[in-house]
Design brief:
Mean pLDDT: 88
Strand content: 15-25%
Distance between the termini: 30 Å
Strand order of the largest sheet: 6-5-4-3-2-1-10-11-12
CATH topology: TIM Barrel
Radius of gyration: 18 Å
Number of helices: 7
Number of domains: 1
CATH architecture: Alpha-Beta Barrel
Low-confidence stretches: none
Length: 277
């Protein structure tokens, strides 16, 4: 059984993406994208071993780029509540034909079970909203989110108006990064990012983070660098333990882990990790 202390679980089916945005939140200081990817059968066998008490998010990269994405949806046992984190560039008609709304959770109010990211550099906003509306009209719970990058402020406002007119939920998440010496975003641990040398700390995460090859990581920094795996989800002896672990990379953290954030109930003040020195 998965401990109730875990707040979020994401299976990164692939780290490949078909967009390649300049401000990719996955690629703060480099990401190793070329990974072995588990087959749908191996993913499902590993996932189905556990009693998931929280929704299970399929993410990436772009998760629908996994070559057996729809097969995986059908192999995961029905009692597992799935959610999808996507750029919504897939064909919504194919999606509707190959899966059903009941395959995904109903979400938690504004926190939709299918969450689509909006990237002004790459997306046609009208097409994105139309794709979301098609899914929504067919019973799926869909929301679009934008990143509050300085270059995206005007597009985000325009997207908010367009989505509202079409009855599609849109919300904005903080941009985390530095532009021309100015830092953006709110970090619970401000000294956890931007350093060249790491510091030894104890860290405990509320997130379950599993890479494309089934390797389990304590944080996004380790996931994207393919370092410090704590086990593999395919190992029948592996279990998810909510506990403090040694880390020598404090100061080189991924901002997503140490930011002051909203949890899956959209409550502010949460953080993915708890750190003690």
């Amino acid at each position: 059984m998965i401990s109730k202390q875990f707040n979020y679980a994401e299976m990164f089916l692939t780290l490949g993406c078909n967009l390649g945005c300049s401000y990719c939140i996955n690629d703060v200081d480099g990401v190793k994208r070329d990974r072995e990817e588990l087959s749908a059968k191996k993913w499902a066998k590993a996932i189905n071993r556990f009693d998931w008490k929280i929704p299970l998010t399929l993410g990436g990269g772009e998760p629908t780029m996994h070559k057996e994405f729809y097969k995986l949806l059908n192999l995961i046992k029905p009692e597992v509540n799935l959610e999808l984190l996507t750029n919504l560039t897939f064909d919504p008609t194919e999606f509707i034909m190959k899966t059903k709304p009941k395959r995904f959770t109903k979400g938690h109010g504004a926190y939709k079970s299918i969450r689509a990211s909006y990237h002004p550099e790459k997306h046609n906003p009208i097409s994105l909203v139309n794709n979301a509306q098609i899914l929504q009209d067919n019973g799926f719970k869909v929301g679009i989110f934008g990143i509050n990058h300085p270059a995206s402020m005007k597009p985000n406002i325009e997207m908010a108006e367009w989505a509202r007119d079409k009855g599609v939920y849109f919300f904005i998440k903080d941009f985390l990064g530095e532009i021309k010496g100015h830092k953006f975003g709110y970090l619970k641990y401000p000294d956890a990012v931007g350093k060249k040398e790491g510091e030894n700390v104890l860290c405990r995460t509320k997130n379950i983070t599993v890479g494309p090859d089934g390797e389990v990581y304590k944080c996004h920094r380790d996931l994207y660098h393919a370092e410090n795996s704590i086990g593999n989800i395919q190992d029948t002896n592996f279990s998810f333990k909510y506990r403090f672990r040694q880390c020598g990379d404090y100061g080189k953290c991924n901002p997503c882990d140490v930011k002051a954030r909203t949890n899956r109930f959209l409550e502010m003040g949460d953080s993915n990790v708890e750190i003690t020195k």
